[in-house]
Structure formats: structure tokens, C-alpha cells
Amino acid sequence: MSIVGLVLTFFACAAIGYFIPIGERSASTLFASATGGGGGGEGADDVLFGGGTSGGSSRGSSRGADASAPDAGNTVGADSPMQEGVAAGAAQTPGGAQASGTQMAGAQTPGTPANASQAGAASQAGVASQAGAASQTAVGGASAAVGQSSTMPVIEGKPLVGRANKRFGFACRAKATVASGDPLEYRLCEVGTSEVKYRSTNGGFVLVVPSESGKYDLVVENTRTREQTRMTIGGFDKVVKLSAAMLQEKLNKPMDDWFYIYFVEDKDLTIDYENIPEGFVPARSVGALMSDRTANGWTIEVVGTPQYDEYNQVRRFKVRIRE
After folding, report:
1. What is the C-alpha to C-alpha distance for residues 188 and 169, in angstroms, rounded to an integer?
2. φ and ψ at 274, to 5 degrees?
3. Which region among 9-18, 62-71, 167-176, 306-315 has the lowest average model confidence (pLDDT)?
4. What is the CB neighbour count within 10 angstroms for residue 38?
5. How far is Cα 315 from Cα 268, in angstroms, rounded to an integer?
6. How confident is the model over 98-137, as pLDDT tens digits?
7. Chain CA centroid to CA 278, Å
8. Cα separation of 239 and 243, whole Å?
9. How far is residue 71's CA from residue 82's CA, in Å, rounded to a whole number?
10. What is the rounded CA–CA span in Å between residue 171 and residue 255?
């Protein structure tokens, strides 16, 4: 009889536990705070459920525009996987069932309003939502400030300027970065103006002619935001203007590495002759003249004053050949 009594008692307790929805009542109480405080968005949910505040604020800001929509999705519904898991745990765990029973009993204590626990939870939700909103605003403001500063190009170090491959003109190499990763355009402009002389997408320039001042403004522009950084750089000086004596000396010596930068291109160069040895065709380029001098052992005299172009290059001169 004692065994039969124990069996009947077990089934009676199981039936009582099955029909009384203690676990569901507990779950709705635990998550009641998630349904209030519309301003917090997902950030409030993260705070309430132990999530990271920075991640919550980020997601909350991305969905802030939809917070007023009916399907904003900021609340945890009855079909939420998180709520179902907690409700199931409360129903299946003896300790959870006892805690739910205690909480339920406390909510029905005489002299205490039936919705006191829900009011406390709602108050907690309001505080948590305000905290989440404040955190979201602070992080959003910081992100905006960082975003504005990260789009400004920054020129790294001093650009390099030097002669380009033993030809007339200069090579220039500059490097700039932008934290936002936007594409950049490099420009060389006349100093103090927006007049663009050269453009580059990688910071490299070749055969840049000298400027009157020997300088250019390097302008680096963020092509997306149009923000610009400007730096004046030198080294773009004209070549030395060769006097008649200097030119004569150079023409009677072996050509050095930078020989041709002192003369305009052959198509623009004019060589006049006072006299030319019989049987020789006057050379029309400075290279041919130098070859004839070397091959025949001539001495070249410069007659008069050479003429120059805007960059001090020799564009016309007269010579006398001595054998």
C-alpha cells in the first residue's frame, strides 16, 4: 500500500506541475523590461542581457531610423529563441520552478499590488533604456568625429625631387595616406593657385619641367570627399645658364651624364657655323657635332652669345671649327 501511495503522489505532483504555467509567467517577468523604453533599441537589449555595450550601440545606431516603425524588432517576443530557452530552463529545472513559484507567490502577497513586480521591471527597463540611449549617443558622436578626421589626406614625410633619367625635367615622388581608405589624387600646381600642371594617382611624377620659382604646390585630394592637403615643395629649379665660355668648354670635353639637359631638343635646336671644313656636312644636332669633333680632332669655338629658352636651355648658338 505504501508503494501504491507513493506512485499516486508522484503522478498527482506531475499533473499539478504540468497544468500550472509557472515557467511561462517567470519568463514573461524576466523579459518584461525588454518591451519598454523604445529609445534604447538593440543597445538596451544588450545591456539587459549582458551583451557588450559597444556592439549594442553600434547596431542600435544603424537601425535608429526604423525605431518608430511598428516592426522595428526592438522587443523580445514570445517566439524569441532566447526567451524560449530561458522559459524551458525554468520549467525543466527544479530550482527554476521553485524560484518561479516564490516570485509568483511574492507577487500575490496581501497588501502588495498585483503588478508591483512588473512595475519594478518596467522602471528598470526605463533606466536601462536611458543608459543605452546615452551610451549610443556618445559612441555615435565619437564615431562621427573620427569619421570626419579620418577622411583628410596626410602627406607622409618630405616628397623626393631629383633629375629624371639624365633627361631634362625632374622626377618627383610623394606619399600620402587617408585613414578612411578613400582613393587619392596627387597634383602639382603653381604655387598659391589651383592651376594643375601634373596629375598622378600613385604619387609619382616624371619629367616635370622647372618652374619660375623652382617650386610647386603638392595637392593631395580625397576624390570622394574633395578634402585637400597642400604642401609647397622645392627643387624644380632651372638649369644653369651656360655663358659662351662655359658652353665652349663643355663642347670641347667628353660628354658628362647631364650633358643634354643644357640644350633644347634637337628639333628645336639651331646650330650656326661661321666656317666649316670642306667636305663636311654641318651637324644639325649637338650630339652629331660632338661626334664630328671627337672623330676629327677639332676644336670648337663659340661665337657670340648663345640664346636660351624659358628654362635656360641653349636653343641657338654659333660655332667656328678649328682643325
Report:
1. 14
2. -80, -40
3. 62-71
4. 14
5. 7
6. 434 434 334 344 444 444 445 444 445 454 455 554 445 4
7. 70
8. 12
9. 19
10. 22
